[in-house]
Design brief:
With about 180 residues, the chain is α/β, with parallel strands linked by helices. It folds into two domains: about 35 residues; about 120 residues, Glutaredoxin (3-Layer(aba) Sandwich), CATH 3.40.30. Helices cover about 55% and strands about 15% of the residues. It is built from seven helices and five strands, in the order H-H-E-H-E-H-H-E-H-E-E-H. Strands 1-3-2-4-5 form a five-stranded mixed sheet, sandwiched between helices. Strand 4 and strand 5 form a beta hairpin.
Length: about 180
């Protein structure tokens, strides 16, 4: 029977579990969990602003548009990455800021199979260059490769705080020229 809501699926699963031997209960609970959770996590790192995994093209675009590069090493399976996404990256304020000021290169480590060999090689090089040590790692840089900001982890900053920090770093670098 096709059930339209998660609640009705859970209700049917609960009634099935109460009449099922213990080893089958584990399989039913696992199947229910995977059915409900997997579709949610598959596209977890879709963001409301343009992103790419092609770093060399992003550098060229940033140079031509006079923008800053936002490089993010994320994993849709990482709770800190999900918190950053929800509290900062998915907000209208950050999306608007990113569209106007950044060329965004985002790597979701749960989606590495989708990268070409050249992109995987470039990712490995970027991990070494920027000393990526955990998730999330954010790097803000000028198109010439000058690092304006590098941050590992997420401490709960709001979108407004992150935008203010990014603006400060971008402004400081442009006044040093």
């Amino acid at each position: 029977m096709f059930l339209k809501t998660p609640e009705s699926r859970l209700q049917q699963t609960t009634s099935l579990i109460s009449t099922t031997p213990p080893t089958m209960k584990t399989h039913i609970l696992l199947a229910t969990f995977l059915t409900v959770m997997i579709p949610t996590a598959l596209h977890a790192m879709e963001l409301p602003f343009p992103t790419t995994t092609d770093f060399p093209s992003a550098v060229a675009q940033a140079k031509s548009e006079k923008k800053t590069i936002f490089l993010a090493f994320l994993s849709s399976g990482c709770s800190h990455c999900q918190a950053l996404k929800k509290s900062v990256l998915d907000t209208p304020a950050f999306a608007s800021f990113a569209k106007a000021n950044l060329v965004s290169v985002v790597f979701d480590y749960e989606e590495l199979d989708a990268l070409t060999e050249a992109q995987q090689s470039k990712l490995s090089e970027l991990e070494t260059t920027f000393e990526m040590q955990g998730f999330p790692t954010i790097v803000l840089l000028n198109p010439d490769g000058t690092v304006l900001l590098k941050s590992a982890g997420y401490g709960g900053s709001s979108a407004e705080e992150v935008i203010a920090l990014f603006k400060e770093r971008i402004r400081a670098r442009s006044t040093q020229r």
